[in-house]
Amino acid sequence: MKDPLTQRLYFLFGLLIATVVLGSLLSPNFLKSSTLGYLLQYVPVLGVLGMAQTLVMLSGGPGIDLSIGAMMSLVGLAIAALFGLGVPLVLACLIGLAIGAVLGAVNAFLICVLQIPSLMATLATFFAYSGLALALTGGSPIGGIPDWFGHLAQGRFLGVPVHFWTVFIPLAVLLHVMLSRTKTGSHIYAAGNDERAAYLSGVKVWRLRFAIYCFSGIIAGIAGIMTLAWFQAARPDAGKGMELLSVTVAILGGAHIFGGIGRIMGTVLAVLIVTTLQAGLQLANISQAWQLAAIGFLLIGSVVADNEVSNRLRMRARRGSS
Amino acid sequence: MIALAVLCAIFASQSEFFLTERNLTIILRNSVDLAVICAGMTIIIILGGIDVSVGGILAVAAVLIGRSYQLGAPDWVVILVGLSAGAALGAINGAIISKARVPPIVATLGTMYIFIAVLFLVIGGVWISGLPNTLSFLVTGSWLGLPSGLYVIGAVYLFSWLLLRRTPWGQHVVAIGCDENAARLVGISIDRTKIQAYALIGLFAGLAAVLYVARMRNVEVNIGTNIALEAIAATILGGANIRGGIGSLVGALMGVLFIKITQNGLVLIGVSSLWETVVIGSLLVIVLVLDALETRRKS
To answer: Which of A114, A138, A300 sits opposite B289 (nearest CB)?
Structure first.
């Protein structure tokens, strides 16, 4: 009997190929290498956010981080503002990551110490953070980022954007190894599967989740730096809509919203599918509406399919035991 | 409640315009859509669910209303179109959640995308504007010296309250929110109740769409984008617990007024309206923290 998560990966891989084929059928320009670069330009930002969201969901609770896009906007603005004040850019980025960690720690404190459900807590901080981003800047972007910094996200290596090589792939590999090979990884799965059992067997569930929410803030900071380099300006609404999109990607990738199930590979494939779909339909001049509809159907369809598979497995297991 | 009074006092002391009858009417007019949706959201949250697609339902209902106006339909047909579209879309949500066992947040997130897609397809990227104002008396008119919006809100909340607290259906909702398995064992039809509840919030979103079109007389492309999160925030401010079973209609109404008064008052005292989300967000945090400390002290 095949493991349903592996089946899920095959399914996503097939879906990815299907979207690529669809894209190339719809538009003759789709398979050119310039398209590939263009396509992959979008991937890392949503990708790292999706991975952070996957971790948050995996650790259970049920966990969700709706403030991830707002944290991303805030960090980007903080870095640009610090740079404007004369702080060296590299130092400003480090401070930015620290700010991301602090913003994440606020979430973590609300959720893990005060035991407020994550959906409510991060909804509240989503309002607070995105409001701050708008209010502190008066709604206008902060520019003036030098060209050399822009190259970090605009440059290409082997036709693929630099930050795809330097951020997206390393992070994906790192998280994959962490989840599948280390003790911390198995603790995360344990906490998501059965909080009580994990606690009784010595996993410090809430300390683990605290760290994960902080980590989510840092990742949002990294995403903020990438968009900052890409646009050479910090927009107060840079992360708008990213919270729901990152949840979508995590769920499409097979992460279970109540925790314990999911893989980084699934999230990576899901990000590729969503961006391929968007780029393909855009190139073919098909209305944005169909992109949204396709994402919506994929999201619901994937969960329904999941339920079907697990039902069948359960039935098979029952038949086997009797 | 106290917070609301304090807030009003602050704004009143800073701007003499705040307490005028005209301004209060403006606040009321702006709150009608959100208030109507919040009545439904409270019931959904008591049920233990959540609906992030209400903005999408509002948008689709509004665009259908706009189109039927353009086809020359009379008012009562238009209202019927709005309400039934809302109820139908809500029922779809309910069916996906209960029959296909998709977690509410995932299901409504998915349908949100689909509804917005429908909006784009029907509207075709151009605003529908210049709609007739035959229905605007529902929001801007007045009757017996009170603005008519008050009657609409009153009717919706009275209806919801009776439904929730005085009928077996309402008891089923609370029971499911407290403990779904126990409710099933008692013999409550979980699926049917859920579908009905989601259809109800859809119906309210449809009504909000009618009121929106009546007030603005146009349908824009980004209609309803923030209303779901605002509605959830108002409901939580009003004391509902997202885990289900607990929630208050009056509290939700207070939450709505709170949000709308903040938006209005900040402008009047000369603070940039950009600060409004900061204020709403920090208040949400404070309410949640106080709530958490209280539960901790009790246990």
So the answer is: A114
Q: pLDDT tens digits, residue range A261-282?
A: 888 888 888 888 888 877 777 7
Give the pLDDT confidence score for residue A34 in this predicted structure.
63
| Rounded Cα distance, A121 and A125, in Å | 6
B221: CATH: 1.10.3470
At residue B134, the pLDDT reads 67
Residue A10, chain B, CB below 8 Å: the answer is: no
The total number of structural domains in chain B stands at: 1
Residue B46 to residues B39, B94, B257, B284, Cα–Cα distance (Å): 11, 15, 20, 18
Per domain, the residue ranges of chain A are 34-304
CATH code linked to domain A34-304: 1.10.3470
Residue B33 and residue B183 in contact, taking contact as beta carbons nearer than 8 Å: no
Q: Does A5 contact chain B (CB < 8 Å)?
A: no
- Does residue A114 belong to the interface with chain B, where contact is any CB pair within 8 Å? yes
Q: What is the pLDDT of residues A193-238, one digit of tens each?
A: 888 888 888 888 888 889 999 999 999 999 988 888 888 778 887 8
Identify which of A123, A287, A300 has the shortest CB distance to residue B96: A300
- How many angstroms separate the CA atoms of B77 and B72, rounded? 10
Inform me whether the C-beta atom of residue B232 falls under 8 Å from chain A C-beta atoms.
Answer: yes
**Contacts made by residues A78-86, CB under 8 angstroms, sequence distance 24+:** A79/A224, A79/A225, A79/A228, A79/A234, A80/A142, A80/A143, A80/A144, A80/A145, A80/A228, A80/A233, A80/A234, A81/A142, A81/A234, A83/A144, A83/A145, A84/A142, A84/A144
Tokens of B195: 């579908």
Site from A106, A118, A119, A120 to mutate, B interface, most B CB atoms within 10 angstroms: A120
**Closest Cβ–Cβ partner in B101, B233, B284 for A307:** B101
CB neighbours of A86 closer than 8 A, spacing ≥ 6?
none
Q: Is the ipTM of this complex over 0.85?
A: no
Which structural domain, as residue segments, surrounds residue B201? 2-7+15-298
Which pLDDT does position A1 carry in this prediction? 43
Tell me if A134 and B277 make a contact (CB, 8 A cut-off): yes
For chain A, say whether B109 makes contact (Cβ under 8 Å): yes
